[in-house]
Amino acid sequence: KPTDIDEGKLEALQNETERYALLDDVFYLYAPDGIGRSKLAASVERCLGVPVTARNWRTVNKMLALANQT
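Given the sequence above, the corresponding structure tokens read:
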């Protein structure tokens, strides 16, 4: 769980189309222009002070569907 969050840096790196939310220990990022172009996505580990892993929403839904098949 992130404990040393640099909110100012998160907001400075966020572009006008991006939105993010940090709920408990999950960081949600909406980047309609693409994660590969996002300065925020590239720097989120440093801003949160913890290692991160990412999944796109399509992958999350596919994993949920597979889990529900068992």
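The mean pLDDT is 92. Try to locate this feature in the token string yourself.
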